[in-house]
Amino acid sequence: MKKVTAAITAVGGYVPDYVLTNSELETIAQISDEWIVSRSGIRERHILKGEGKATSDLCVPIAQEICRKRGISPEEVEAIIVATITPDMPMPCTANIVTDKIGACNAWGVDVNAACAGFLYAMDIGARFIESGRYKNVMIIGADKMSAIIDYTDKTTCSIFGDGGGGVLLEPNDEGYGVLDSILQTDGSGWKHLNIKAGGSARPANADTVAERAHYVYMNGGTIYKHAVTQLEKVARELLSRNHLSIDNISWLVPHQANKRIVDAVSQQLGIDAGKVMLNVHRYGNTTAGTLPLCIWDYEKQLKKDDKLVLVTFGAGFMWGSSYIKWAYDGS
Amino acid sequence: MKKITAAITAVGGYVPDYVLTNAELEQMVDTSDDWITARFGIKERRILKGMDKGTSELCTPVALEICRRRGIQPEEIEVLILSTATPDRITPSTSLIVMSKIGASNAWGLDINAACSGFLCGLNIGASFIESGRYRNVMVISGDKMSAVVDYKDRTTCVLFGDGAGGVLLEPSEGGFGVMDVLLRSDVSDIDGLHIKAGGSARPATSITVDNREHFVQMNGKTVLKYAVPGMIQVVQDILHRNQLSVADLDWLVPHQANKRILEIVARELGIPLEKVMINIDRYGNTSAGTVPLCLWDYRDKLKNGDKLILVSIGAGFIWGASYVLWGADNYYK
After folding, report:
1. A58 touching B, CB under 8 A?
2. Which residues in A lie closer than 8 A to residue B319 (C-beta atoms)?
3. Which of A21, A112, A208, B198 gets the highest tally of CB atoms within 10 A of its CB?
4. What is the rounded distance in angstroms from the CA atom of residue B191 to the CA atom of residue A98?
5. pLDDT tens-digit series, residues A182-195
6. By C-alpha distance, which of A191, A212, A190 is closest to A203?
């Protein structure tokens, strides 16, 4: 009996139309283009505008693109997992709203909250669903409307984050393609460096939490940078080694797009050519759960069957990890 | 090669000490013990008191009890899946806080949200993890601090909900025990039937959302009833059918505890005698994601190796589903 693996058979991505440039941020938050670019490499990010618009509005076009590219109708989708820290509402979950909006009437859905590691963690769940034989297809979407939780008077965060997302369809494969391995790790001691203080059950929303601006992302960038660079290199090396791969065997490194400096440092330490590293943080900023699938979507045309991809991500918690994917189709 | 299944090898549960009785609710809102008992079958519910206490405070003792019962150290846990609609914080995940508190230093984990059906979704994920052969154990915990999202001025909801959590440990079984099947469905055409309007990306917290009390659960009981009764009956019948089981084969029905009347109607329509239906809503109210594992925990001493259980739940969305569990494990369960 051949082992079934979960292959990626289609990719979708979406960023909203509105472009928030560094020069607009100069006006609203008094930070200079030069300062932002030198610290993060970010030139612009996309923002979802409009009263009541939410993360499901980012996910719907992604899900529809995936169906269109794969040539399936939404009714054929069996499960949708949405990784997000910015669900439309505390309940019901956003995945359910997405199944409804695209007409995936035979699918069930669940949200995953694992911050910037959300997509990688959700993809691991999807891969296990396929490998266990429970489902014939699973849609994995990572998306965040970060503008809902960003304080545009906080210089340290407002230039970093943007809205957007992407997703993939996973299907069974018996030729050894797909999500072949993952190493996922966490360290709860990191929670204090990146968090949102209020809006959960520990500090529910009230007049004080709103007045204190406690519903926005708090971030201590310096500490995260150090942990991210160290752990990302370590977890990528561990993944390569247990799959008997050297860095030269890798076709693409797909890093979480938090900051160009982190991407550069990790690539350098791993010794991979910059030409093999997916990068789009300059155009989208950090879209949290959205970055990895947005990268794959952006680079899809350059991907070839048999390409070996290593995904790495690091985020709030801390939660981080790395996945090894053997690409199943020619992107062009 | 024998198919590996995911056996439930330990159960844990936790409710906080403070008991909110119907008599106390009579002092808070215009309601009465008779009315609450007649309509919902709820006598009391537990409330987690104390500043800054979140859902992790409910889940931590559950995780510790599971380790103790199974005789393992927290460091041996490989994965923790925590389902909740009331995480401690928006980020980072509550699972991480629990792992940190118990010292599960070798585990990774994540939060999922599927409202009251969170435990079934978590069980589905955990079982897949075990079946794929990648993990030797997965802890699935579900809990909600509903008192954080309940408006104690809204007499239609504040009598219903309580705080609590429960969970299980899943391990590989070659003897065919454990989570045999999970069937999940969703339909969001009546989203207003049960939801929390603000606090997400559609309506972030502002002084207006706070003033409008939009951070609290809003529920239309009639709409919930319209989905819950036929939804739960149909999904139980479907999972029985696809596992070639009849109602007579069942030892236990383990239903989400939202309303005792709903449970009684569902059991009657399915033809399941009430003594085979796990019920503890009278003591805990609706603990959202916590109800199903809290039932397993309450009834654990009555369960025998080989018992056939159907778990069934419905929650906000709506998302509902059922799971067929063959109770027991290869060697080690008492």
Report:
1. no
2. 92-93, 96, 108-110
3. A112
4. 12
5. 999 999 889 999 99
6. A212
From the candidates B82, B83, B113, B184, which should be mutated to test the interface with A, based on the most A CB atoms within 10 A?
B113
User: Residue A309 above 70 pLDDT?
Assistant: yes
CATH of the domain at A107: 3.40.47.10
Q: How many CB atoms lie within 10 A of CB B213?
A: 13
Task: State the smallest CA–CA distance between residue B273 and chain A in angstroms.
Answer: 30
User: Between chains, do B92 and A194 touch, taking CB under 8 Å as contact?
Assistant: yes
Q: pLDDT tens-digit profile of B257-316? A: 999 999 999 999 999 999 999 999 999 999 999 999 999 999 999 999 999 999 999 999
- Reported residue count of chain B is 334
The answer on A67 and A190 residing in a single domain is no
Whether the CB of A52 is below 8 Å from some CB of chain B: the reply is yes
Within 8 A of A202 by CB-CB distance, chain B residues are 52-54, 56, 88-89
Rounded to whole angstroms, how far apart are CA atoms A218 and A128?
33
Answer whether A277's CB lies under 8 Å from A311's CB: no
The per-residue pLDDT of chain A, averaged, comes to 96
| Domain limits for position A247 | 180-326
A331 within a domain of the structure (yes/no): no
Task: For Cα atoms A89, A281, A164, give the angle at the middle one, nearest 5 degrees.
Answer: 25
CA atoms within a 13 Å half-sphere pointing along the CA-CB vector of A5 = 17
**Quick one: A157 and A299 in the same domain?**
no
Selected catalytic residue, list B116, B121, B158, B295: B116
| Beta pairing, strands B5-14 & A138-145 | unpaired
Overall number of domains in chain A: 2
CA A120-A126-A132 angle, to 5 degrees, is 135
Catalytic one of B124, B259, B280, B286: B286
